[in-house]
Amino acid sequence: MLYLLRENIRSAIRATVERRFGLMLPEVAVEFPPHAALGDLATPAAFEVSKRLKAATGEKRSPRDIALALAADLHPELTKNVDRIEVAGAGYVNCFLRRAETLLAALDAPAVVSMPRFGGKVIVEHTSVNPNKAAHIGHLRNAILGDTLVRILRAVGETVEVHNYIDDTGVQVADVVVGFAYMEGKSLADVEAITGKFDDVCWDLYARVGAWYAADESRLQLRAETLHAIERHEGALAALAEHVAERIVTCHLATMQRLGIQYDVLPCESAVLRLNFWSDAFERLKAAGAITYETEGRQAGCWVMRADPETTAADDEHDADKILVRSNGTVNYTGKDIAYHLWKLGLLDRDFHYRAFYRYPDGHTAWMGGAVASGTESPPTSFGQGVAYLNVIDVGQSYAQAFVKRGVLAVAPPARRSSVAVSAHVAYEKVALTPSSCLELGFTLSDEDRRRPFISMSGRKGLGVKANDLLDRLEKRALAQVQAHQPALSKAEQQSIAHKVAVAAVRYFLLKFARTTLIAFDFTEAMAEQGETGVYLLYSLVRIAGIRRKLREAGLECSAPAAVLRDYLPQVAEWLRDDGQNPNEFWALAVLALRYDVVLAEAAETLEPSVIAKYAFQLAQAFSAFYNRHNIRHESDEVRRAFLLALVSLVESRLLAALNVLGIDAPERM
RNA sequence: GCGCUCAUAGCUCAGUUGGAUAGAGCAACUGCCUUCUAAGCAGUAGGUCGUAGGUUCGAGUCCUACUGGGCGCACCA
């Protein structure tokens, strides 16, 4: 609601400044003042005009004079929504909205308007966990961040395709294969016969393989041989690798499904090579002059991409350049990634072979993009060919991601360069463990480690909190609460509620931190059900559901409060008026709810989901205060009851929208 | 060595592209359940925004230097 209004004010100010002062303002800041006495929207543009006027003409005019002129000119253009405009402080222009009219209009308006900016399909890649062990909470942060980003983009009207890249040919898979084949002497049939949680079995095995290598480094030769067999796609080891990768991917998809996360395409790295994506990309990189063949020095025999000399410098220990093709002629990960990204933007005349890999309960299918044609079904739409890509990958990959982008940019035809320019690496910090969490997991720590603020997770050491384990613990804990609060419900209903509570808790916990904040995972904090948590958000909506239920039971139902209030506009205006020095609490709540689309737009623009999480909590908090002060069921005045209910409806609508974008589903009771 | 990033209340973190009186949760303390769910609400206390300069009407936010963390710079993926 406020998004469009803010844009209107922005353009009105820009036009007024141009007309009266002959200045073009590139950006006009319109913000939300710290308190209600200063209006609903405000702009410090007069300060900017004063500065620019002085620079352009030498004329000195006080910001306050300019603000007065702006306010006078602005008002006629905005009378529809704005009640009055005041100049405050040294030169702020403050707009006050017509409260009653705005509230009623908002009740009939959708929570958000469509405002796509990419102009076509955006490809979001996230999760991309090595398919060799159970997913841990670090992978969960990636997936939840990515999934929420997808939901944000879809909410603002973007078309999004979700990719989960499967690195089925890397050392990580090879290590588990070595474990099965050489440590345990298992055949493919033996591994296929393993029952139970396969990802947990591999988690333990992977850690043991690490120790096994450390005990005798000559065993690393087995890894190299296995890797080679996988890359050539030959023999029993390759077949075992394929089985491990596919089965683990299935585990990962099931884990993520618990959190409401789905994928459209699972492109496999093996196919990037076998379907000649790379050889095409290689030729194009050479033709574009983006890579050069080294004939001397320690990179002799390699194809390398030069670093940007302005931002990176080489020294004795490090080459700033990035090798894409090793001296033995094989391509590394970054090279393959460039090929994959060319495909994402439709810049390769090649495609994967698709087969339906995973069915979701709602009928959606995740398609595996592999090297060989198999199966009878084909996808309903074409994949790839996006106008932009967004990669949710941890910040440690920034260096490599920068080379991927430069590689794609070098090959892209001029008309498509803007596609590459708007594409981005959505970087986030990792999840580490607090020392106390490590101890709780049963790991022994040195005294030095004990004093550290956090300890990195390590799949190779088997040190980490598995995603499924955390969810299990949360569900168990929530179930105990639900059983205490809702003893009358069936076991199945209680479990369904406990599941929703657990999902809300994890998703909110991993989303409330800004992307660049390292999370030191602590069980106590992550399992908290009080304060700034996903549980609190659910509780607010449960209370709203409770209000509606009780009103229905009392025969006081009111499905369309706006229709009732339309006949009592002066009364509504009175209820929304500030009382002397005190700002009006109803209006404060309403105007916060109306900011939803502004917050969503900000999240979509900055690719920062945490702002929505923070906003949802703020709105829920404001509602809780309202809830404690006003009892709707016991309100005898019918019109006032409709008024209070209108506020509840507004909050409910925006809170539901926010939670939907956060991937959190609220139960009726809890 | 170079690059990126962070430093805000006892702890964990927000802080609207430079704006008006720096906020929240946890922990501590004080109240509130015959009431639409107390998984809650109201209140108290807690700050030289790492240090020193600079830019300007205005700096937690931008620039420089310094101090102290974290990450990256592999013929790994």
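Residues 270 and 305 of chain A are 23 Å apart (CA to CA).
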